[in-house]
């Protein structure tokens, strides 16, 4: 008889993360509890990942009770109250296994306070900044209680594993397992960068750089726009930029206007996984300019792994867990330095053959390390 598992995520979850649980369907009846995303959109995306048998339950969180977006963002911050569940908590607590992320979130503490001794608690840990929870006493207290109760702690990177703090004598099953992406429609070696733009009607097609990410300053799009100006106007390496991601485009469009590159930038807004993949088959390189802040740095990067799986050359700031994910085959720039970023992109444009070889190496790494089904099987074996 199958056991039941509740997978609970806070507001506006990254649905790509859930594809790893396709490997669980044979052994578990899965229910995904989420908030901040429309049920139709969630169902459509998870069905595309082969999770038609996963039940969906949309719960209300505290932040959804507040009409102001500014207040919502404040409440959704990890040391705030925004993630607490105001509905369906009892439904979560009916499951044999309960799977949550980040022990500092309010809802994980809420679940931990009510979970029975015979239920298993799985904590998926993304945090890769050592001691960050300790900066705020309430967050540290919540995290400690959740980790003390956890039966399994799954760290999504070596960086996350290395920064975990457990008290002496406490030893839940702690291991590192990368998240994965859905590889079923991505035959290894099936995408080659050498053919991109060959059928363009332009006599000498300009290289196209792709950015995929939330439109917020920590993702570094503003640095990429400055780098585009340096490439086009100072280095005379004409190139275009395609931007995919949800959020307010207004400040970035204004910056592009100010820099004189607005005609070279295409803002496509939010896109489905299939649409992102289609665009990746059209462009020449992928740029991932994530920044560093005192409270956040890049923890994984699903769009980054998608680009790797497509064999795209990758240019990135050397920040967070990016080097751990890409190894030495990405072309790195000094974090936050737009001129260094422009130099890295220029290198890819001017050294096409070597850049494509790096892209092939990244593709092999993606299929070897970040296949959702394989990573799901690793997690499944660990908890059964």
Characteristic key phrases:
six-stranded parallel β-sheet, globular, seven-stranded parallel β-sheet, 36% helix, 384 residues, alpha/beta
Please describe the topology of this protein:
Elements: E1 3-11, E2 28-35, H1 39-48, E3 55-58, H2 69-76, H3 89-92, E4 97-101, H4 106-114, E5 120-125, H5 137-149, E6 152-155, H6 158-162, E7 173-176, E8 208-212, H7 221-234, E9 240-244, H8 250-259, E10 265-269, H9 273-280, E11 285-288, H10 302-309, E12 314-317, H11 322-326, E13 331-333, H12 338-350, H13 352-369, H14 372-383
Parallel strand pairs: 1-2, 1-4, 2-3, 4-5, 5-6, 6-7, 8-9, 8-11, 9-10, 11-12, 12-13
Overall form? globular
CATH architectural grouping of the largest domain: 3-Layer(aba) Sandwich
Strand order of the main beta sheet, please? 3-2-1-4-5-6-7
Our measurement of the CA-to-CA distance between the termini, rounded to an integer number of angstroms, reads: 14 Å
Rg of Cα set:
21 Å
Give a count of the beta strands, DSSP E runs of length 2 or more.
13
Low-confidence stretches: 197-202
The name of the CATH superfamily of the largest domain reads Glycogen Phosphorylase B
Structural class by sheet pairing and helices: alpha/beta
Order of H and E elements: EEHEHHEHEHEHEEHEHEHEHEHEHHH
